[in-house]
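User: Sequence recovery, please. Input:
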């Protein structure tokens, strides 16, 4: 694995394995790339390992869950070769997270303003004045009226949709190379979900930031991404251009996920749940892959 800084991907995950202390694998040989300015959706049912990939990239894996094999490169730099402190500051400078739950992501006892400007001054070394101007600019861009008043508010004084728009503003403010959006619309009601999705798409296009977009919703995949990685039980089932995946899905599981997705404005057949026999077969394959992996002593 050589370092390819000249034509580095924004994100390069190579054969990543993540496991619990007793060896139970949560991610199985996951590889994926993200090019500059690209949106890649990570899709799969609950527990497939979508969030775990985002957390591994950002270096925020839950306690006890460890990378057992594989590499993560940000713009060609091997994160796993860095000291923890260098890794933390590299990741903080180059990437940002738009989390699932905007309420828990914001500190309830701090005003909004410093929660946006602090990372800009602390991590990116901006002057307070520059950070404040950027916060105002971004709040305005995410359609927050009266940004100054909002910056003096506490999170509980704002609606869920507003809080998520604030987190989007905060994520894009330092112009990161990579944003991990972890189910950013799941906690919101349907009309707000659409606005938030549109906003992320617009800002992503304007800034050219690459986005790893975690979702369980194939409808969202179709709207936001150019590439898609389909996961099942921590394994990559399919990796292709989003258009190809919808027009010509290669794997029966991807076909089943698409069939299980309600399509607005199309009065097609009723949605089909993913067939139980297919799930059973995939679990069987997963167990077989784990047995082989254990036998090879992680190769
Ligand atoms: N803190 C934890 N300790 C032990 N196992 C965990 C922990 N967090 C997640 N897992 C397990 O890791 C696997 C992947 O979880 P992950 O949260 O990445 O799934 P996901 O695809 O994002 O699902 P969801 O859509 O429900 O968030 C699951 O089997 C889950 O049970």
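Assistant: Recovered sequence (299 residues):
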């Amino acid at each position: 694995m050589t370092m390819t800084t000249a034509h580095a991907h924004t994100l390069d995950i190579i054969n990543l394995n993540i496991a619990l202390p007793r060896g139970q694998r949560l991610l199985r040989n996951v590889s994926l790339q993200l090019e500059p300015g690209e949106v890649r959706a990570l899709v799969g049912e609950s527990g497939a390992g979508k969030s775990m990939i985002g957390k591994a990239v950002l270096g925020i894996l839950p306690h006890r869950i460890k990378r057992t094999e594989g590499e993560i490169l940000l713009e060609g730099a091997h994160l796993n070769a860095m000291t923890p402190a260098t890794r933390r500051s590299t990741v903080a400078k180059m990437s940002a997270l738009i989390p699932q739950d905007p309420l828990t992501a914001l500190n309830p006892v701090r005003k909004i303003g410093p929660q946006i400007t602090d990372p800009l001054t602390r991590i990116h070394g901006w002057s307070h004045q520059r950070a404040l101007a950027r916060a105002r600019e971004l709040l305005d861009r995410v359609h927050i009226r009266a940004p100054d008043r909002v910056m003096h508010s506490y999170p509980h004084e704002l609606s869920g949709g507003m809080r998520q728009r604030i987190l989007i503003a905060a994520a894009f403010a330092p112009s990161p190379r990579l944003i991990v959006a972890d189910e950013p619309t799941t906690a919101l009601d349907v009309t707000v979900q659409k606005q938030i999705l549109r906003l992320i798409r617009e800002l992503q296009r304007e800034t050219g930031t690459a986005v790893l977009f975690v979702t369980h919703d194939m409808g969202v995949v179709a709207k936001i991404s150019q590439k898609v990685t389909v996961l099942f039980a921590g394994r990559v089932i399919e990796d292709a251009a989003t258009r190809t995946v919808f027009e010509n899905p290669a794997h029966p599981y991807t076909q089943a996920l698409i069939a299980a997705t309600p399509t607005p404005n199309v009065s097609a057949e009723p949605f089909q749940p993913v067939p139980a026999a297919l799930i059973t077969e995939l679990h069987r394959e997963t167990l077989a892959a784990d047995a082989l992996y254990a036998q090879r002593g992680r190769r």
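Residues 11-103+178-294 form a domain with the Rossmann fold fold (CATH 3.40.50.300).
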